[in-house]
Design goal:
The chain is an alpha/beta fold. The protein folds into 2 domains: 3-140, lyase (Annexin V, domain 1, Orthogonal Bundle); 145-451, Aldolase class I (TIM Barrel, Alpha-Beta Barrel). The chain has helices at 17-23, 29-33, 41-52, 71-78, 82-85, 93-100, 107-113, 119-126, 131-140, 170-182, 199-216, 228-234, 251-256, 261-274, 292-295, 304-316, 338-354, 373-386, 409-419, 425-433, and strands spanning 3-7, 10-14, 145-146, 150-151, 158-161, 189-192, 222-224, 243-246, 284-288, 322-326, 359-362, 390-393, 398-399, 404-405. Strands 7-6-5-12 form a 4-stranded parallel sheet, with helices on one face. The protein has a 4-stranded parallel sheet with strand order 8-9-10-11. 52% of the residues are buried.
Amino acid sequence: MSYQHTIQHRTYRFDNLRMLLARATPFRSGDALAGLAADSYEERVAAQLALADVPLKIFLEETVIPYEKDEVTRLILDTHNKTAFAPISHFTVGELRDWLLSDAADTAALQALSPGLTPEMVAAVSKLMRNQDLISVADKCEVVTRFRNTIGLKGHLSVRLQPNHNTDDPRGIAASIIDGLLYGSGDAVIGINPATDSPQAVVTLLQMLDNLRLQFDIPTQSCVLCHVTTAMQIMHHAPVDLVFQSIAGTEQANRSFGIDLALLKEAHEGALSLRRGTVGQNVMYFETGQGSALSANAHSGIDQQTCEVRAYAVARQFAPLLVNTVVGFIGPEYLFDGKQIIRAALEDHCCGKLLGLPMGVDICYTNHAEADQDDMDNLLTLLGVAGCNFIMGVPGADDIMLNYQSTSFHDALYVRKVLGLHAAPEFEQWLQQQGIMDHTGAILPVSNAHRLLGYSATANR
């Protein structure tokens, strides 16, 4: 099916839905690199106007990757909830945008609708939204998940404590963890990106994290972000809380990561069998990022934002505790500057929330991007207003192992304070019991006699 729109006697034609979605996307360097971006601002507007008139039912009939060639497409269509979709089945994309911004689209209505939305519908409507629209809609969504604490409640913002070390030195990692805990970070997860994916190194780190958690009775979860196959190999003789994996929106891109849906299903079932959660059993942790499929030459001619939202269908299938878009990590080839990173993060967060995912954002950039920490401050504040489930807490905002810039423990304190946000309730209670935080959320001075400062990573290996 082809689509068209005329502006001042010039008719712009789009051969198929895949092309229409690509041309309608706000400009970013990755789509230009792939030859998918609109040639002019006028063409982009024409595509957006044409897209606004597309009935939502078309997305169930015309696929961006053929059903028989891609298991992500099959997952999207085979799991589509027609009952949930029925109330809006007569809408166009433009009408869906208008409804999402109306008072009728409250939290309960959005939660009920979520199973009836496909990634392509959600990607399409986001392309018609201004930044404030993305923030407004996301703020109305609430996606709550549980393992040892409760994440995603309105008025709360959690933090992944990210204590990476370039040699996996337990002492360096422990120092970062203690620092983060004393600043109120760590309720989303204490999650380490290991310098090596060897099973023994991962086990050593998991044991250290679990010993720390048990010693201080911390109501949180841990994760070493190894490949899913490594986690499966060790999960029955190591304290595996969450199973991590990077995912993408096409079968080919996921294969480049060494995974498919069957493997993720096996890992999910294995993690559930451990029954390590205390208040819930959301056991998966997924990371995504615009440009990942393109960087693997596995985007199938789809714009990078639509590819990204298709990855959320994969995540949704496994009821994760956490999903975060590592928005600026892949580099300026895909998101060139602060403006593109901010726009992409707001899109990802809103689209993920509409699909029912517990979305967090790694507010970040690489050192060769045209971005700086002021851009990250802006994005952090916008996401706080939008109701983001969690962000990253990195010592000094500078990850010495992955060599990129993110957000710090202090940044998390800032956004919680100015927006009146709280940590996960179980974790916040623990912080108060430990004398780290008072009942107003203010961080208290720490004496040299504080229990956490007596922790020894080497003694607990």
